[in-house]
């Protein structure tokens, strides 16, 4: 693994090199990221600047590498044995693959909602309380209760679970589990929230509520959302990145992508054509 | 960036093609209305004028259908990128065509008045020349639309300047006739409105050409065209 090798490039060079504006408010800076699963090359030389206080959408056909790339941003690929990551990924200028970085601490700062809901085999309450507890975010039981309630409310599931907080999280419906995982992710107040198709199992009402939450989170955080719904990407994000076969094909302001994309592959994909 | 590939949902292609064929139908009717109304003036043909007026109802009905279909596609298919531009452009273009139809109808109405009057020598032929030029521009604009040909659309935009100049020349001519003999005033006022309306048709055709450029490139063209109508500054001298 070539983790965290600093590149001999000035910041300006990088901006010029990839022509997507790396604003002063760049939160995550990824340079020349490659990911292999064994011999399969899943992410190819991807460089991207993700802005702070912005929702960035990753779109692209199934299998193009969206989840793989997302997992690079909080080192979740470390947990996959066959995965090898190279390149330079920085959050607030700090190399997240540096030797002294504790992935567990990193993941408190960079929260994630997975494509498949994965509640812990614990109570609904504990699912949400776990993070704040281990990171010492609550000083008292009352504090913790408050964090749990607020997180569940923000994830638009409070009313459905408030009377069964001690029931197992795994006993919820798919869509409820998804929202529970969103509650769990926001409970630690991460600076960056990575959401991998967070609304795939949600009805339109819950979807709107989650989108509202995403919009609210944007005031303080940087949110990256993977979605297969073009309408959702258009509604919630300010920047959109289109991935295709492991490449970052186009990265621009969302209105630009959805009114006048510059690459033919982007156009074909978002308009539902055989590309 | 426009894609000419088919949608995976073939019904979407059928919807878009359906709306665009309504535009072509409208375009055909408007072209005929422009030529027929000018002909009715030259030939003092009241019957043809009546036909033009009746045909305008069909144009209006088609415009309504285009808008309904466009609303349906937006509601059901949430078009984006070039699909969105296609839907937006058909709404705009059908509006432009409908206005052209109205102007042709207005010309035909004035024909019914003008048949009673003595017209200055050659004036109705000049009107017809102008109408033919606008009709030719419309034909090219619609071809450009069908072929997604931004270069052809650009030439249409440039030709609007010629129409403006024809109008300026007629304006001066009518002014001269009216000053020479006040008995010309009634006819010349009607003829002037006709000329002005044809000039406006030219502007609508230009707007159609601009929609074609937008459709193909995603950008509305710059105001690179010369503004030809100088009559706002004209005074009898
Ligand atoms: N754990 C893994 N081991 C081996 N190959 C993997 C693994 N995870 C993903 N891949 C492969 O890497 C490529 C990218 O997968 P990834 O899950 O990132 O795609 P995706 O864009 O998120 O797709 P989807 O939209 O279906 O979720 C695919 O070809 C996939 O089969
Ligand atoms: Mg995925």
UniProtKB/TrEMBL annotation, chain A:
It comes from the Bacteria. Gene3D superfamilies: P-loop containing nucleotide triphosphate hydrolases. One of its GO terms (biological process) is phosphate ion transmembrane transport. Keywords: ATP-binding, Nucleotide-binding, Phosphate transport, Transport. PROSITE patterns: ABC_TRANSPORTER_1, ABC_TRANSPORTER_2. InterPro entries: AAA+_ATPase, ABC_transporter-like_ATP-bd, ABC_transporter-like_CS, P-loop_NTPase, PstB-like. Residues 28-270 form the ABC transporter domain. GO terms for cellular component: membrane. GO terms for molecular function: ATP binding; ATP hydrolysis activity; phosphate transmembrane transporter activity. This is Phosphate import ATP-binding protein PstB. It comes from Profundibacterium mesophilum KAUST100406-0324. The gene is pstB.
UniProtKB/TrEMBL annotation, chain B:
Its main location: cytoplasm. Keywords: Coiled coil, Cytoplasm, Phosphate transport, Transferase, Transport. Residues 23-111, 127-212 form the PhoU domain. Pfam families: PhoU. Homodimer. GO terms for molecular function: transferase activity. Belongs to the PhoU family. InterPro entries: PhoU (IPR028366), PhoU-like_sf (IPR038078), PhoU_dom (IPR026022). Residues 45-72 form a coiled coil. It comes from Profundibacterium mesophilum KAUST100406-0324. The keyword rRNA-binding does not apply. One of its GO terms (cellular component) is cytoplasm. It is found in: Cytoplasm. This is Phosphate-specific transport system accessory protein PhoU.
